[in-house]
C-alpha cells in the first residue's frame, strides 16, 4: 500500500480529519487540509521528518507508513518476488494450500527472519486464542520492532560499523 493510503488509514484509525492532522503538524489555515489531501492522493510525498512526526501522532512506527506499494495485485507480486530475491522467501504447497515459507539456504537471513516470523506467529496465535485483543495485536504490529518483547529479532548494525569491524579483523 502506498504511503498516501497508509496516512489515510492511520488518520482515520485515530479519528482525525485531514484539517485536524494538518493543524497538528503545523500547517496553517486552508493549507492544513489541502496539504494532507495532497499527501493522501500522493500528489506530494512527505519528507522523512514529517513521516516520523505523523508516525508519532498515530502512535506507530514510521515503517508502518512507508511499506512498499502493494495497491495492485501486480505490485504485490513484485513485492513478493523482491522478498524472494532479498530474503529467501519461497512459495510452496502444504495440504493443497499455497503457502509462503522461509528458505533455509539463505543462512543468517533465515535465522533472523525465522525469529521475527516466530514472534509474529506468537502474537497472531494469542489473538486467535483471545489472549490479546485486536487492538493489542494491531499495536504490536504497527510498532514493530519496538513493541516486540520476545527478543527474537535481531538489530542489523550500521553498514559503516560493519565495514569498520571487518576491516579491523582483516588487519589481524
Put the structure in a nutshell:
The protein has 172 residues and is mainly alpha-helical. 60% of the residues lie in helices and 7% in strands.
Structural summary, described in words:
This protein has 3 domains: 3-65, Orthogonal Bundle (434 Repressor (Amino-terminal Domain)); 70-105, no CATH class; 107-172, no CATH class. The protein is built from 9 helices and 2 strands. The protein has helices at residues 3-14, 18-24, 30-41, 48-58, 62-65, 73-87, 108-128, 134-142, 159-171, and strands at 89-94, 97-102. A two-stranded antiparallel sheet has the order 1-2.
Structural category: mainly alpha
Overall pLDDT confidence = 86
* Strand segment count: 2
Shape: globular
Q: Please work out how many helical segments DSSP would assign.
A: 9
**Helical content class:** 55-70%
Please indicate the percent range of residues in DSSP E strands (runs of 2 or more): 5-15%
Task: Show unreliable segments.
Answer: none
Report the end-to-end length measured between terminal Cα atoms: 47 Å
Placed side by side, the strands forming the largest sheet appear as 1-2
- The string of secondary-structure elements, in order, is HHHHHHEEHHH
Q: Largest sheet, if any?
A: 2 strands, antiparallel
Itemize the secondary structure elements and their pairings.
Elements: H1 3-14, H2 18-24, H3 30-41, H4 48-58, H5 62-65, H6 73-87, E1 89-94, E2 97-102, H7 108-128, H8 134-142, H9 159-171
Antiparallel strand pairs: 1-2
Helix pairs in contact: 1-3, 2-3, 7-8
Amino acid at each position: 500500500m502506498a504511503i498516501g493510503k497508509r496516512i489515510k488509514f492511520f488518520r482515520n484509525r485515530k479519528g482525525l480529519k485531514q484539517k485536524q492532522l494538518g493543524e497538528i503538524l503545523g500547517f496553517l489555515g486552508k493549507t492544513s487540509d489541502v496539504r494532507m489531501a495532497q499527501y493522501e492522493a500522493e500528489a506530494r510525498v512527505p519528507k522523512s521528518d514529517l513521516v516520523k512526526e505523523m508516525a508519532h501522532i498515530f502512535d506507530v512506527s514510521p515503517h508502518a507508513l512507508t511499506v512498499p506499494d502493494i495497491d495492485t495485485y501486480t505490485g504485490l507480486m513484485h513485492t513478493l518476488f523482491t522478498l524472494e530475491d532479498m530474503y529467501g522467501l519461497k512459495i510452496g504447497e502444504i495440504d493443497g494450500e499455497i503457502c509462503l515459507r522461509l528458505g533455509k539456504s539463505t543462512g543468517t537471513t533465515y535465522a533472523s527472519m525465522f525469529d521475527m516470523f516466530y514472534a509474529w506467529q506468537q502474537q497472531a496465535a494469542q489473538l486467535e486464542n483471545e489472549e490479546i485483543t485486536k487492538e493489542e495485536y494491531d499495536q504490536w504490529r504497527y510498532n514493530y520492532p519496538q513493541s516486540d518483547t520476545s527478543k527474537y529479532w535481531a538489530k542489523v548494525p550500521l553498514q559503516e560499523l560493519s565495514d569498520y569491524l571487518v576491516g579491523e579483523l582483516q588487519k589481524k
